[in-house]
Amino acid sequence: MENQINSAINAIKLLRSSVSNVFETTLSAQNNSIQDESSFLLELQDQLSTVDVNFKSIESTINALNVPSGPFTLGNTAVLNHEADPDRQGVYTDLVNSYNWYEKTHLYSALANTMLSQNSLKRSFYTSSNKRRRPTVPVNPAQLVDHMINSINTNNMTIKVYRPFGTPTSAFLHVNLSRVMKAAIILRGLVIELVTVKGFNEPLDSVDDHWIESRYAVFRKIQDHAHCAMLHFYSPTFAELATRSFITWLASYSNIFSEPCKRCQRFLLNNLPPTYRDFRSLEPLHEECRH
C-alpha cells in the first residue's frame, strides 16, 4: 500500500512538471517574436503529448490503489474540518505559534537557570569561613520577639503581638501610631517578611486584611516606602537590630500631617503630604523632593 501511494505521488509530480513546461514554452513564445511557427507548434505538441501520457499514468496508478475499509485515523485533528466559523479556522496557526512560544520559554528559562545558578542571590554579605560546626544554644523565637517589643520605647505607638497559627517562629505585630495610621508587620523569627500600612479607620485585625491595600493614596505610598525600608534594614546576622531600626523608622510617621517637607517647606505636593522618611535622619520629604 505504501509503495502504491509513493508511485501515485511521483506520477503527480511528473504531471505538474510537464504542465509547467507547457506554460513556460507558451510564455516564452508570447514574450519573444516567433521566427519559426512550425517548430514552436511541434514542440508544444510534444509537450502536450507528455502531459497526456502522465495524466493517464496517474489514472492507472490511482485505480490500482486499494480502497481503505474504514476512515483514516486522524486523532483529534479530524475535528478541525467540522469547524465552519471563519474566526476559528486559523486554529492550526495559533497552535503552531503557541508551540513555538512554549519552546522559546523553555529555552530562556533553561538559560536563566544556568545564569542564576552561577550567582549567589543572598541578601547579606555575611559568609562563614569556619567549616567547623559550632554548638548552638536553643533559643525560643517567641521570647526574643516579646523581649524586643517590651524594650522598644513606645511613646507614640502601641504594639500588640499575635500568633494566630500557634507557631513560635512566626508572629504578627499590629502597630497603632498616634491615631494616624495602622501597620501590620509579619515576622519570621525576627526577620520582617511583609508590611501592610492602612489608615487609622481601616480594618486590619483579620489576617485577610493584611493582603488588601489601603483605599487612601497616602497610606499606599507609605506602604511602598515601608517595603523599601524593610529591605534596607534587612540583616540576618543582626535581625533584632534591623527590626528595631525599622520600627523606629516607622514611628517617625506620627507627624506626617503636621510637619512640612524639609526641602520645599510645603505640607502638600501633588495633594500628598511628605510620605517619605530618610532612612538615617528620619526627615520628612516628598517623594519628588528626595532626589
From TrEMBL:
Its main location: nucleus. One of its GO terms (biological process) is regulation of transcription by RNA polymerase II. It is found in: Nucleus. It comes from the Eukaryota. The keyword Phosphoprotein does not apply. One of its GO terms (cellular component) is mediator complex. This is CLUMA_CG005920, isoform A.
